[in-house]
Amino acid sequence: LTFGNQYLSIGTYGMAAQLYPAGVTGPTNRFTDVAADLSYFVPIGANSFSANATLIHESQRWDAGGSANLQNTLTTFRFDAAYHLGHQYAFTVAPFTTTGTADTLLYAPGTMTGSRTGQPNSSGVIAEVDIMPWQNLRLQFQYTAYGNFNGATTNYDGFGRNASHNNTFYFLTWILF
């Protein structure tokens, strides 16, 4: 949809998968994802603002095993808002969250990637600054901060690791020819 110089799009997407863990026949595990997304863009003089959001809901059925529950769900929400100063700078903030059914087998305690709570719940925010000094070069500085990881803020894996231990700083360089 366009109205004036603004742009809005709303969409949906999804996936249905059937996995055979023991080969090409036998019991299956099924995963069905249903999602909606939204994008918005508006120029503001020489600058611009954009926002994007997506919501994904996954239903899982574990008939072939591998999970403590026969049925689980996961829900992920992501949002980002970016302000572009001309063609040289961009500033982005992007909160995210994932929640789901607790499952002690899928999300078992384990060093770094495990969950002592048996939950997949994670949330945080990404902040990014882009600098484009000329047309074919981009310098990107991105920081991801977790408030919650695999169901907890502190000692999420059962081995003393906190959600903030997964915070990450990225520096990327794009050179286009």
Write the layout of secondary structure elements.
Layout: E1 2-3, E2 6-19, E3 29-44, E4 47-62, E5 71-85, E6 89-100, E7 122-134, E8 137-148, E9 168-175
Antiparallel strand pairs: 1-2, 2-3, 3-4, 4-5, 5-6, 6-7, 7-8, 8-9
Concise structural overview:
With 177 residues, the protein is mostly beta strands.
Question: Mind explaining what this structure looks like?
Answer:
The mean pLDDT is 96. The chain is globular. The protein is 0% helix and 61% strand. It is mainly β. It has no helices and nine strands.
Kindly list the characteristics that best describe this protein.
177 residues; single chain; 9 strands; globular; mainly beta
The number of distinct β-strands equals 9
How many distinct helices? 0
Computed CA radius of gyration, to the nearest angstrom: 20 Å
Q: What is the terminal separation in angstroms?
A: 33 Å
Backbone structural class: mainly beta
Can you give the helix content as a percent range?
A: under 10%
The main pleated sheet reads as: 9 strands, antiparallel
What is the H/E order? EEEEEEEEE
What is the general shape?
Answer: globular
Q: What do the pLDDT scores average to?
A: 96
Cross-sheet strand order for the largest sheet: 1-2-3-4-5-6-7-8-9
Strand content: over 45%
**Segments where pLDDT lies below 50 for 5+ residues?**
none
